[in-house]
């Protein structure tokens, strides 16, 4: 193990108990650089251990005896924030390090109370962090390390000004930007805020024992997508994360599927925090077989054991296609990326999938299951 010797005894013991099969490349590269104090731009595919790659060095670097907030992790969505806080809590148990969650959509007064206790590390969304800084409740000058998780989102035009304002409010700090995809533009924006940044790039080829992922599609009419989702939710062993491009489409599908009592839940920005938690819990416990979400709601969600990623709509960009697709076939398990393909989206789909190692497979719905073939195959077999 390369980086473990740099970590304290408590972290080494916890690593041993977690029983990981192997170190991930992003961890081997990022952890020593973070412990050196370098500014870093790190790119590694979804589901390759990025969160632990910055959580472990942060836990090593902070001093729990100091009653001040020393590290900040900024995230683009509430769900990702909640998930990262859970990871921190798992690793800080039995230590004096405290972690607070400062996300939008939650009670601000309670967050202010938590800040009075001087948590060692805080995890938050840009808007809420900005409000707390303006209210003089979060003291940015005490923060020594900032991590931007899903940095491509946080440095996009939507959040850039807010995030830059938060970074500029610090005095001397280490800045780490991590994401599955980092474009040249994002890299330039990040580098303007950094001192001699280290660039780390991990590709899917570098990941040990990645499961085999099949890319497939089933041709359908737009109006038939909801019914197809309902059928898929009854396929034995199905554990799928389905993506819809627009909130309106998601809400419409959700109401039709609820009416039909399909074992499907949705996740979207208009849900209350408790509703979101219940939907995620139901899916994680296997009470339902498919979770439908928009990209924003699913950003950073870490759900293990997904058999399928379902593109209900063809994504708007190749990055989006790869981001979504990277959630299955993790940690050596096989997976399938299924697209519900309408005639109008065929050209875009071909464009997004032409770089894949193998050609996407066409499937058809036949006698309660998806099988390889086209509609001609059905005619040959007889319905």
From TrEMBL:
It comes from Psychrobacillus vulpis. Transmembrane segments: none annotated. The lineage of its organism: Bacteria, Bacillati, Bacillota, Bacilli, Bacillales. Residues 227-372 form the Helicase C-terminal domain. Residues 31-200 form the Helicase ATP-binding domain. Keywords: ATP-binding, Helicase, Hydrolase, Nucleotide-binding. This is DEAD/DEAH box helicase. It comes from the Bacteria. The keyword Transmembrane helix does not apply. GO terms for molecular function: ATP binding; hydrolase activity; RNA helicase activity; RNA strand annealing activity. GO terms for cellular component: cytosol; ribosome. GO terms for biological process: response to cold.
